[in-house]
Amino acid sequence: MDPWVEATRSEAAAILAKSAGQKAKAVGFTMVDGQRSVTFTTGPRAGHSGESFDAATEFELGSISKVFAGLLLADSVVRGEVGLADPASLYLPPDLRVPARAGRQVTLLDLASQAVSFPLMPGNWATRKTSYSRASFGQYLAGFQHSFAPGDGYSYSNVSTALLGSALEQRLGRPYGELLRERIFEPLGMSASGYADRSSSSRNVLEGHDTNGDPRPSRVDASPLGPCCIVRTTLGDLSKFMLAASGNQSPLMRAFDILAEPRHRIDEHERWATLGWVAYPRDGLLWKYGIVEGQVSTIVVLPAQKRALFVTANSEGVNIDRVASDLTARLVRPAARVDPGNHRQFVVPSPDAAMTPASAVFGNTIRLEGWVAPARARRAESMKIRLFFRVLAPPDRDWELFIHGDAVDGTAPRIAADHYPGHGDDSTTSYRPGELVIDDFELPLPPQYSAGALDVWLGFYKWHGRLPVTESNLETQDDRVRGPRIRIERTPVVARH
Questions:
Q1: CB-count exposure of residue 163 (10 Å: 0-12, 13-18, 19+)
Q2: 66 or 133, which is more confident?
Q3: What is the dihedral of CA 323, 326, 327, 332, to 10 degrees?
Q4: Helix, strand, or coil (residue 174)
Q5: pLDDT tens string 236-257
Q6: Are the beta carbons of 497 and 472 closer than 8 angstroms?
Q7: Minimal CA–CA distance to 462: which of 415, 434, 421?
Q8: Would the pTM count as exceeding 0.90?
Q9: Contact predicate 476/413, CB 8 Å
Q10: Which three-class secondary structure state does DSSP give residue 10?
Q11: Could you state, in order of their start, the residue ranges of all structural domains in the chain?
């Protein structure tokens, strides 16, 4: 056996045993590195049958199906059949139309990148226990009103992907499932994958469980929302998809490049929307989460490194993003974004004499050594705080520092000041062992801040996961530590004459 395969499988098994705990009945994992791949499964695929979850067990991808919808769009662009800027109304059937706003039409790009103000589900989606008809979908769309102009915002929605699937179906003249099979599954050799608007007839199917561990019933017909959620596949087939998605030669290389291009920023945490992925450009990382009846999954791709991983668990009680984050941090290890040879140094002989000393180690790589902070602050002013971090070992990711200003008595909302430590242009992956990183930031206090004191909590995070606190002499909570406590005074009232 390839030593890499054996070592990766062993380490993945240990991480999954710790991260997924007893909440999952079965867990499946697959990873690719270059042209190598490894798969690991544990647990029974269904009930008390005793039959094991394996690489051929079939399951649905939930919202990871949106990546396939985006890839189908990208392939159609490569073929010259559609353009991303084409109005969706050119291709949507008459009963599934969406209005314009401020003279702007909804485009195919808007639908794929979730840039339309649709909610997650249609307003007339009443219950998962009954089917949802095309007529009901059309009625919802007929009364829809935008809350922002198409392309001017982000709203994660199954409706957008459903409309994208309908537009491609209408434009290309083939059922959506056939398009996926002919243009994606067959070219990539994914012979066990498909698109089903009802339960699969296969006998080797993963059975889902709710948060209490009870079996989940088979889902109902999801049409016409199917493109958002119901691609089915196996771990064996996903390895083939991930080999192509991570930059290896395939018939869909150009389409994968178009699929992965960041289109618009989602939020202040450097998340960007693509045609199907959520992208983290600073890390060169693509991510997508999916949930379907009783099962949760996450896929992570780093094209520049030709690495990718996928993990799934058949219980809604598993925090699959945290599991994937642990696997990524240990197994994928993103390369430094900044060339260490060009790194600007933040080394100083010693911290400020006024520093309040502390010791809190994050992930065995970065140690908080102390801070300089005001003892008191006034409302409507900004508190200037300086933190001192010592680099113990090269961090494996471009970690972001989160700051929480939490009211001691709980009477005021949290104040946040998340940012990249040191200089915003630098990556934590370029820090050198022994280096002292000085981080300055401000916490602005609202004029009507009601609390008499606040605690400054801090930690590091990235991609839905926090860098664990591995050692600390400070109060610790949820992989964050408590720094300075600052008294808040009322702003003096200026007399008027």
A1: buried
A2: 66
A3: 140
A4: coil
A5: 999 999 999 998 889 999 999 9
A6: no
A7: 421
A8: no
A9: no
A10: helix
A11: 3-332, 342-489
